[in-house]
């Protein structure tokens, strides 16, 4: 009897062992998707086009070039795309072309094409939140134009465009135009009646041709035909602002000078701002902001709304346009005021653009609701109209604590 | 199913029946032996010549047995000894010279260091084999004089437990030397050494050492009891005693501390531990041996406590690394990619590109290769050491990677693991961990991290459930004893060590030193006005 029990126990133990093998997926039989682009087929808008960026580890690591021939040639990834009537079908259709099992565990960025965003990105967010391999913390960006085209870029400094995008967003959200949006945040915002969704807007850019002022273009080398502009797509990527959603549909963007206010309103900014020197308007003083703190509120009246933005911060002068010491400058208070005014100006510009788009991406409604749920309920059904017409009160207080001149 | 089970059951029962019969036969045979032993312990006759002849026959008439009659006026005297076991100079100077040269017969007495009266033939034979010389005299009976001096090694540097700054002398194979080495460190009247003779054929001398009044009585009694129950034909080293008295004979973990350092024996005896020395073995056995005691090194007490605590923590970490590093690596890269940071994952993936074996096979291969290298390095003659290290490094390391047989990262992991096990001061513990690594790797290969934790839980379960001489093996971690933790996970400063461990020391003797010994400036500082 004991023998039989032991035999049964042994067989049961073997069952556990069998269970383990189901999850077995050796690293060398796996293809890691780093970035995923979602587009609509221009020919047939009912079809999803999914582009996956699969990493080629051998090209990525230093070890591949270990034999001493320098960095390996060729891109460290390749793009592969497929179309089908649903996202997941399109995704799995890639299995017909890739000899390894694709996994989304290490996917860091989802690029939503402009067309998809305009017609409603909700299905993409919902899919990403459901898929067991996609992390809720995956970053979502919206590309200008099709996602596929954006993904074909090759940033030089960070060979993986996925990490390059995240790196740039992290950097940018400290200084100005954009902030990170994760899958779970976007879903929260889309579902929330008191806040509108926004995701960084990205595009490809060629750093030289885009930035070099007229007259400084590189002359083509002798013997080589001059390259026609627009022949090759630019290789680098850029974050230009925030794509603004209403519900799950893209309605516009804050970008360029309009987007400068984004980080002031969010607080914690460490950006720069330039103002003319009060005593001599030809001189420009540039201030590096050490830290800022912001508080938002909405004050509903009978048939009106006031948006209140308060920003407090501290800065240090980086560029004064002259060598004169500023420490005992009589214009110091005026300088501080000028900086505060300039910041207020940028904030107003951003908010007025958002009012045009009727999108409350900073969640003024949410702040109102937290302060006074009843007050929010009274204006809830008129909110969009009130918001678009709202009066904006901006109160910025800046302290300049360092003159930046140490020697 | 039932047919098979029944058949196996019947078979097993039959095997047991046969075994029982065999053991009964053995018992009866043992009785016979006892009888024969009884016949050997017959009393000496008092006739020197006849007794000498008896002894010669008992020992099988060996040519190296020296039987030398000494001419005396009054009585016949015969000196018997075994050539090679005794010191010829001592025999000549201290025994033969006084017996022959002294003019007055009254004063004709040998004067060596130690002497004892002999009553039986058996006693005379064992005295001879111990290196005594036996003087048989008509009517006056037999006396054994200790003049032993056999070939022995000098006290040398410790080989297996080197320290950075601690004392360097280690035990030798000679019991008397070893005993002196310990005694020299504990000059107290409490020092006790009890003699046991184990091994029917080897008659090995075994000493039980403890500090009376400090070691717990029950502990000493238990060790004594277990030593008495040892009944084998030969005790050739410490391990025979250990395996016959161990608490957990089937556990891979050692339940006693083996050390070749007299200072470590002394320091553990001060805490109330009991030590066993075996003649012919350059190791001492100290019990009870807890897991944390096995992770202590002699250096801990010879270095400042911050550094000693740090190195002790390093050792705990190396236990974990040595046990689990390869298995965690295997399970991460074959099951749980999502746990690896992306860049690290790509480094691993790139290094695994084109490797023909799955990770688990690769890991087992490399671990086995390392074990073979280690064993070869241990067994082969010293002169070939250089050749081995060249082959080991070049063939196993460099060429295997170049040929694409193993990934460089696996070499890194295996190397790290190997080094980690060498950081464990107690070799038996390191061996246990080395051994358990393989089942852990198998579990990792089959079940992933789940398997690793399953295996880890089994190991922890084994540790928690074992005891050493009544002391839970993981004391003072489990069951937790906060006072003792200061000497287990890290080493507190010496002025903290106010208590002896409750599980070794006598209840009344737990206080080790008075409190408040932290050095503090008293009175005014130099130059300061009072």
Overall number of strands of chain B: 12
Give the distance, in angstroms, between the N- and C-terminal Cα atoms of chain B.
Answer: 94 Å
Q: Main beta sheet of chain B, described?
A: 5 strands, antiparallel
Share of helical residues of chain B: 40-55%
Structural class of chain A: alpha/beta
End-to-end distance of chain A? 91 Å
Low-confidence stretches of chain A at least 5 residues in length (pLDDT < 50)?
63-72, 220-231
Strand content of chain B: 5-15%
Give the largest chain-chain interface (CB within 8 Å).
A-B, 31 and 29 residues
Helix and strand run of chain B: HHEEHEHEEHEEHHEHEEHHHHHHHHEEH
- What does the overall shape of chain B look like? globular
**Helix segment tally of chain A:** 14
Sequence of strands across the biggest β-sheet of chain B: 1-2-4-5-3
Counting structural domains of chain A, the number is 2
- Radius of gyration of chain A using CA atoms only: 27 Å
Mean pLDDT of chain B: 85
Strand residues, percent of chain A: 25-35%
Radius of gyration of chain B: 30 Å
- Assembly state: heterodimer
Could you say which overall geometry of chain A the principal axes of the C-alpha atoms support?
Answer: globular
């Amino acid at each position: 009897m004991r023998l039989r029990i032991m035999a049964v126990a042994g067989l049961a133990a073997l069952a556990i062992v069998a269970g383990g093998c189901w999850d077995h997926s050796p690293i060398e039989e796996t293809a890691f998707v780093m970035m995923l682009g979602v587009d609509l087929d221009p020919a047939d808008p009912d079809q999803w086009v999914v582009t996956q960026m699969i990493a080629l580890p051998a090209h990525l690591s230093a070890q591949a070039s270990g034999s001493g021939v320098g960095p390996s040639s060729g891109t460290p990834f390749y793009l592969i795309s497929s179309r089908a009537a649903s996202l997941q079908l399109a995704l799995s259709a890639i299995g017909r072309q890739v000899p390894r099992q694709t996994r989304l565990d290490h996917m860091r960025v989802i690029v939503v094409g402009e067309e998809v965003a305009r017609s409603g990105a909700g299905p993409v967010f919902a899919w990403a939140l459901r898929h067991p391999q996609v992390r809720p913390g995956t970053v979502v960006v919206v590309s200008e134009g099709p996602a596929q085209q954006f993904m074909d870029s090759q940033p030089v400094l960070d060979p993986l465009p996925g990490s390059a995008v995240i790196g740039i967003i992290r950097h940018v959200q400290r200084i100005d135009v954009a902030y990170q949006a994760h899958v779970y945040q976007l879903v929260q915002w889309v579902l929330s009646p008191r806040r509108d969704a926004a995701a960084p807007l990205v595009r490809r850019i060629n750093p030289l041709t885009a930035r070099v002022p007229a007259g400084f273009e590189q002359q083509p080398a002798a013997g080589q035909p001059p390259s026609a502009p627009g022949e090759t797509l630019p290789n680098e990527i850029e974050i230009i602002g925030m794509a603004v959603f209403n519900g799950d549909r893209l309605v516009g963007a804050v970008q360029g000078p309009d987007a400068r206010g984004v980080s002031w309103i969010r607080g914690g900014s460490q950006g720069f701002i330039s103002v003319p020197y009060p005593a001599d308007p030809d001189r420009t003083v540039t201030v590096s902001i050490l830290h800022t703190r912001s508080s938002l509120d909405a004050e509903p009246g009978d048939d009106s709304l006031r948006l209140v933005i308060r920003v407090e911060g501290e800065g240090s002068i980086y560029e004064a346009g002259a060598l004169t010491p500023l420490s005992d400058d009589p214009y110091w208070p005026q300088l501080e005021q000028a900086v505060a005014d300039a910041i207020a100006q940028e904030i107003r510009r951003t908010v007025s653009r958002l009012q045009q788009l009727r999108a409350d991406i900073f969640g003024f409604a949410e702040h109102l609701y937290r302060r006074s749920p009843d007050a929010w309920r009274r204006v809830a059904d008129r909110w969009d109209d009130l918001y678009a017409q709202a009066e904006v009160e901006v109160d910025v207080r800046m302290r300049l604590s360092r003159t930046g001149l140490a020697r | 199913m039932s047919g098979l089970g029944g058949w196996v059951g019947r078979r097993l029962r039959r095997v047991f029946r046969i075994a029982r019969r065999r053991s009964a036969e053995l018992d009866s045979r043992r009785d016979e032996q006892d009888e024969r032993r009884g016949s050997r312990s017959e009393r000496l006759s008092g006739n020197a010549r006849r007794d000498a002849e008896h002894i010669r026959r008992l020992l099988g008439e060996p040519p190296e047995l020296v039987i030398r009659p000494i001419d005396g006026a009054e009585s016949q005297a015969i000196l018997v000894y075994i050539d090679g076991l005794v010191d010829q100079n001592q025999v000549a100077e201290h025994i033969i010279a006084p017996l022959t040269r002294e003019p007055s017969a009254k004063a004709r007495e040998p004067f060596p260091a130690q002497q004892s009266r002999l009553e039986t033939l058996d006693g005379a034979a064992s005295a001879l084999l111990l290196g005594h010389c036996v003087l048989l005299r008509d009517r006056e009976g037999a006396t054994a004089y200790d003049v032993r001096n056999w070939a022995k090694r000098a006290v040398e540097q410790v080989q297996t437990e080197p320290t950075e700054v601690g004392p360097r002398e280690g035990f030798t194979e000679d019991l008397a030397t070893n005993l002196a080495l310990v005694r020299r460190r504990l000059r107290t009247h409490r020092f006790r050494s009890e003699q046991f003779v184990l091994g029917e054929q080897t008659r090995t001398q075994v000493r039980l050492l403890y500090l009376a009044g400090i070691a717990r009585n029950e502990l000493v009694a238990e060790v004594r009891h277990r030593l008495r129950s040892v009944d084998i034909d030969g005790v050739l080293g410490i391990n025979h005693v250990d395996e016959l008295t161990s608490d957990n004979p089937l556990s891979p973990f050692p339940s006693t501390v083996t050390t070749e350092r007299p200072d470590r024996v002394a320091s553990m005896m001060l805490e109330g531990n009991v030590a066993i020395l075996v003649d012919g073995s350059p190791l001492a056995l100290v019990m009870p041996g807890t897991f944390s005691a096995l992770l202590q090194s002699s250096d801990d007490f010879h270095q400042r406590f911050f550094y000693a605590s740090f190195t002790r923590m390093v050792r705990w970490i190396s236990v974990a690394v040595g046990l689990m590093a390869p298995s965690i690596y295997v399970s991460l890269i074959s099951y749980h990619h999502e746990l690896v940071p992306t860049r690290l994952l790509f480094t691993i993936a790139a290094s695994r590109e084109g490797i023909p074996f799955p990770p688990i096979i690769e890991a087992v291969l490399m671990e086995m290769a390392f074990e073979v290298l280690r064993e070869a390095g241990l067994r082969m003659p010293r002169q070939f050491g250089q050749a081995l290290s060249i082959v080991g490094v070049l063939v196993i390391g460099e060429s295997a990677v170049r040929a694409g047989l193993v990934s460089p990262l696996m070499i890194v992991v295996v190397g790290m693991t190997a080094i980690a096990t060498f950081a464990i001061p107690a070799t038996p513990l390191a061996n246990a961990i080395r051994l358990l690594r393989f089942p852990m790797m198998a579990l990792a290969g089959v079940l992933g991290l789940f398997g690793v934790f399953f295996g880890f839980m089994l190991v922890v379960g084994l540790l928690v459930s074992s005891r050493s001489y009544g002391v839970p093996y993981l004391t003072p971690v489990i069951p937790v004893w906060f006072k003792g933790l200061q000497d287990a996970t890290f080493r507190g400063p010496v002025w903290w060590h106010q208590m002896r461990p409750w599980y070794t020391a006598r209840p009344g003797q737990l206080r080790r030193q008075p409190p408040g010994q932290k050095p503090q400036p008293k009175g005014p500082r130099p130059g300061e006005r009072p």
